[in-house]
Amino acid sequence: MKINLQIIAAAALLFCSGSAFAQIDSTLLNTPAKTDTTKHSLSMDAVYNRPFLKLGKTPVSIGGYIESDVLYSNTSGITNGSQFQFRRFSLFVASTISKHVKFLSEIEYENDPTGDPGESSGAQFGIEYAAIDIEFNPLVNLRGGLILNPIGSFNQNHDGPKYEFTDRPIAMTQMLPDTWSNTGFGLYGKQYANHWMFGYEFYVTGGFDDAIIDNTQGKTFLPAANASLTRLTSSASGEPLYTGKLSIGNDKIGQLGLSYMGGVYNTWRIEGAQVDNKRSVNVFDVDFNTTIPRLHTAITTEWAWIFVDLPADYTPEYSHRQYGGYIDIVQPIIHGRILDWDNATVNLAVRGEYVDWNQGNFVATGQRMYNDVWSIMPAISFRPTPLTVLRVNYRIQNARDITGNTIGAAIGPTRGLSFGVSTYF
């Protein structure tokens, strides 16, 4: 959930008026750099590692991306036919305020029915990110404002044009909160040595609330907290949410990220009087990406584990433990001049994903609980340039209820075909 705002029209006007005299700022492009000191990149660089247009001699740069798709799906023999979806329009506005002080914001229109069910339905305009960075040293930088919590890689690295798939990963949108951002402050830093890269981030922010165990989903559901705007100005628990990440990478091997997010989520005190025990939520995440030399096969994967302290009288549908993640494999099969594009690529890709919302066994019987989903999504994509992608996906998905049964239209097998386009601008 992003902050609703009235300045979208003004920001759009700024974009339209500025693009007439803009030129590409090559230092911010997500392309191979010209020097050894700038070619290194970690997932934490994703918010700035985007194509921007610099507005003449002003300190302001702008950019953005769009996503639009058409989907035909069938769940247990039931279909709504073809659905045309304009999912996202994001506008980036960045500024170098002074030496070692910079600002970046992301303003987004979103209407994604396949995304976070915890968000309010219908189209939304809002602020997804707005933070000030102050650099004291490459290893010590202060960031404050509305930030993306660095849990895993996808939460910070979610732009549609980067992926060969029309949908975002299920685990990162329906187990973890999609584009989870909060008000807060923290430190981050990076160090490069030859082919090696090291980075860290640590933030204290607002966080979750009682909605993660009191929601319309009827299960432990972290994305439900995304629906509350009050979390950006007040905390249900009065306690900070801690998020930290360590990243290590090598130009020739790949990049590994280890992250943690946790804190008290419940309203345990009202007007100074304790009404409940403090209950915590803890999330552990590991992500990895690499490219196999010569074959240029790109592999991206992320898996997360969630632990939630529940009241003793909760039913088994609300789980203490959840687990899930995904793996993307992308193989270029044609690269070079296609039609009038000199640097075009055709890719074959596949995504495998799994989420278990109820890890563990029933206390009464000792039998395993399920409430899980798995999906395989083969894809083919065409990139006329690295910044634009046309993609065709076919989803094969099965889900089971808590007892392991695959019954009913709501949880039956799903098959779907989608075509989409996404591009930076």
TrEMBL record:
The keyword Signal is assigned to this record: yes
Native source species: Mucilaginibacter frigoritolerans
- Which keywords fit this entry according to its UniProt record? Signal
| Annotated signal sequence range | 1-22
Task: Supply the name of the protein.
Answer: Phosphate-selective porin O/P
Q: Which InterPro entries match?
A: Porin_dom_sf
